[in-house]
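Project standup — Tuesday

K.O.: blocked on the structure for the chain from last sprint. Re-posting the sequence here as requested.
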Amino acid sequence: MTFLVLSILLVAATLWVARPVLAGGGLRLTFENVDGRGVLGTFAAVSAAALVLGLEFAVGLLVAALVKSAGHLVGHRLVGDEAADFRLVPFPGGPEAAGTAPRDDLGAFFILLMGPGLGLAPMVAAFALGHVFAESAPNLAEAFRAYALAAGALNFVSLLPLWPLAGGRLVQLIIEARFERVSGLAAAALAAMFVGMSLTMQSLMLFLIGLVAALALIVRPPQSTPRPCLTRTETRIGFLAYFATLAAYFTAGWWVLTLLPPTL
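H.V.: unblocked you, prediction finished:
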């Protein structure tokens, strides 16, 4: 019961942060704002997840993606971008297509982190409700757990410090606050580090993630943006917020690293 009460408090705190957007009806979805690329990508991702992990997890993954996209929209609105639209685009760089480019790195950092940030409270609440209904309604409890695990996996992978994932772009903003011209080198070093970690941990999934990040650097290396960088204080607070969010999602999403066992 304590876990449930704490999760309710976390949900209330999240709603309080997003209250300016919610009060203005900013999360209403209209068919005019639906992106065809996002619909096709989401359908493919959900179908693949249903075949591999089951329908409950696939539905949970879809809901988690919707919550994550809503978080990016809330971030856009809170930094003053009233023209932002709700678009479900499950690709790196997709959420930023929902609105205009931020005027400074602080706004960009907030928008990127707000996507996973908004989904943290629902994930914790789902775990708590899964525990509450474990005996009285096991099927409902399993659905809550499936959503929580899906949200943990989706956001954990998204927050990995690999470009062009959201985590990689967050790390890029942190690094550029101190060193303006090393973002490409840092991204390459992180990709190499994750490939090495995959060999040590014998995680094929981690190897594939690192390989995709390395290929992305070859095709399109990260570019610095001509806008005000984070201050030293903002960098420290941003790093703590990023690391805390990544650590929270690691507790629920680490299992995705064992999804594809090594063949050797």
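K.O.: great, moving the ticket to review. The longest helix spans residues 105-132. The mean pLDDT is 78.
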